Amino acid sequence: MDRAEPIPDHRAHYDEHGWAQIKRVLPIEVADAMLYKMQQELGGDWESYKGDYIKTFLTDKRAYECYSFDYTPMAALQYGLTPYISTLVGKELLPTHCYFRVYRKGDICHVHSDAHACEHAMSLTLGYSNDYLWEFNISDKYFEADVDNPVDAAQRESHLGFHNLLLSVGDGVLYNGINYLHGRVKPNPNEWTAQIFLHWIDRAGKYAQHAFDGRAAEVVRRADFKFPDEDAPEKLNPDRADLVKARRYD
Ligand SMILES: [Fe+2]
Fold first, then answer.
1. Quick one: which of 19, 47, 157, 233 has the most CB atoms within 10 Å?
2. From ligand 1's centre to the CA of 114, what distance in Å?
3. Distance, CA 113 to ligand 1 centroid (Å)?
4. Chain Cα centroid distance, residue 185
5. What is the pLDDT of residue 246?
6. From ligand 1's centre to the CA of 246, what distance in Å?
7. What is the 182 CA–ligand 1 centroid distance (Å)?
């Protein structure tokens, strides 16, 4: 697959419709590896789970969730995706935040619009327990969110159309989270479905202050390394000792 080839079409579709379906944002193997690591490190059941197990206004049932500032590998995934998403959008973006959610069977995601930090959003599928693709729904209508809450405005519509998108593992839908209603209206057909929601702002746009979720002063800092005296002993990870030995030239 040539990743450069569909970019002009994705960008034009996103500009015109407020969303674009992107195949293989992550190779399937990378999505599998990321989700497996998250399950190992965050926990795969209620007893072990170190993130949040909560019900928000978006779901009917409690879900496993995690905020990127609480789990650095997820933030790092978003940092790494930032140039690619900027290329798709055609603007220089900065990340705001991302959230991980594992939905249980039968749950939905209520149709909603997002806060300003979600100017350019992506819902990315990391895994389905039973391999049933679960439809993502996005409105075919743009709502002027600064004038009226899109959910309220939608109730005055006589007919509201939705696009129903099926995402395979590693696929994402890029969308304008502020001005288009979106959600998952059909119940999750899998025992669980794992998603990441990633959000960016245009660094030159009107929501730029939301970069790094308003925590840029805390996050975007100059690193510093200090060396010991040269006679300080080596420190090696014992699990990697053989590998390190192979890289030695002395
Ligand atoms: Fe949303």
1. 19
2. 5
3. 6
4. 19
5. 77
6. 48
7. 6
**Rounded distance from Cα 245 to ligand 1 centre (Å):** 49
Query: In this structure, what token pair is assigned to residue 203?
Result: 């660094």
Distance 185 CA to ligand 1 centre (A): 13
pTM: 0.94
10 falls in which pLDDT band (50, 70, 90)?
very high
CA–CA distance from 10 to each of 21, 86, 99, 179 (Å)?
8, 12, 24, 18
Residues 6+ away with beta carbon under 8 Å from 161: 139, 140, 141
Alpha-carbon dihedral angle through residues 237, 49, 134, 176, given to the nearest 10 degrees: -80
Give the span between the Cα atoms of 237 and 73, in whole angstroms.
Answer: 20
Count how many residues are written for the chain.
250
Q: Give the phi and the psi of residue 37 in degrees, each rounded to 5.
A: -65, -40
Residue carrying structure tokens 């409690």: 62
Q: Name which of 234, 199, 228, 226 is nearest 114 in CA terms.
A: 199
Is the CA virtual torsion 212, 216, 222, 227 positive or negative?
Answer: negative
DSSP 8-state code for residue 233: P
In Å, how far from its chain's centre is CA 55?
19
**138 Cα to the center of ligand 1, angstroms:** 10
At 249 the pLDDT is 65
Give, as residue ranges, everything with CB less than 5 Å from ion ligand 1.
Answer: 114
In the chain, the domains with their CATH numbers are 7-246 (2.60.120.620)
The mean pLDDT of 148-153, rounded to a whole number, is 88
